[in-house]
Write a structure and sequence with these properties.
Radius of gyration: 17 Å
Largest sheet: 7 strands, mixed
CATH architecture: 3-Layer(aba) Sandwich
Structural class: alpha/beta
Shape: globular
Helix content: 25-40%
Distance between the termini: 30 Å
CATH topology: Rossmann fold
Strand order of the largest sheet: 3-2-1-4-5-7-6
Mean pLDDT: 90
Number of helices: 9
């Protein structure tokens, strides 16, 4: 059974599991797939926190021979159409060296304060020289500080426990858990729906997001590392 510390997340996503939840536009799905770039020797892949399988289905188009989609919510997994396992990311139900690639797409920020525990488990189940890649909201982003924080302006569209992550902190935690070549790059998704959140990003922040300002104005970051 999943750990109780994020039971609210499980309840939230179980309620979302009435249909196949897809969070990214077609443009962004293609961009993320290019960034992940599965390699020919990465034959066993885990879609960690895969929900209803959006990222996992993208990965199957690259010819990955073996892929497992794991999530805390059985209701979400019903829509994945993939080999699926309900499980707790703090105690992954897999043997050592089981995977060559772990994709944590928009996942780590749902377990704030427990990132190191998740990464430690990921290092355990990754084969030597295996890769882990993912993307999460950028804690340095001004928008995320306002709308994903604990203040009155926090948006109700976010799940109860998700909080943005500082890319610098995450790279440090990756190194501490035995990963090498940790890197990150900031970006913003292109939401096809022009919400107030999206409008601020698209018309105010993106045009001035140059140089060092990118770290403060771009909402997300893609990250990757290799098991030492």
């Amino acid at each position: 059974m999943p750990s109780s510390h994020y039971s609210r997340e499980q309840d939230f996503w179980d309620k979302k599991g009435v249909d196949a939840y897809v969070s990214l536009s077609a443009f962004d799905q293609e961009r993320i797939l290019r960034w992940i770039g599965p390699r020919s020797n990465e034959r066993r892949c885990l879609d960690l926190g895969g929900g209803s399988g959006m990222t996992g289905r993208l990965l199957t188009t690259t010819g990955v021979p073996f892929l497992v989609c794991m999530d805390i919510s059985a209701e979400m997994l019903r829509h994945s159409g993939l080999l699926s396992v309900q499980g707790d990311a703090l105690k992954l139900p897999f043997a050592n060296d089981s995977f060559d690639l772990i994709v944590a797409a928009a996942f780590l920020h749902h377990v704030p304060g427990h990132e190191s525990e998740v990464l430690r488990e990921c290092a355990r189940i990754l084969a030597p020289n295996g890769r882990i890649v993912g993307y999460d909201p950028n804690a340095r982003s001004l928008q995320n500080r306002v709308f994903m924080g604990d203040g009155r302006l926090r948006l109700s569209t976010f799940s109860p426990d998700e909080r943005p992550i500082d890319p610098r902190v995450l790279c440090g935690k990756l190194a501490a858990e035995g990963f090498a070549n940790a890197s990150s790059t900031v970006f913003s998704f292109r939401n096809p729906k022009l919400t107030p959140f999206e409008a601020i990003q698209r018309y105010v922040l993106d045009p001035i997001s140059i140089g060092l300002l990118r770290n403060w104005l771009q909402r997300w970051f893609f990250w990757s590392a290799t098991k030492s």
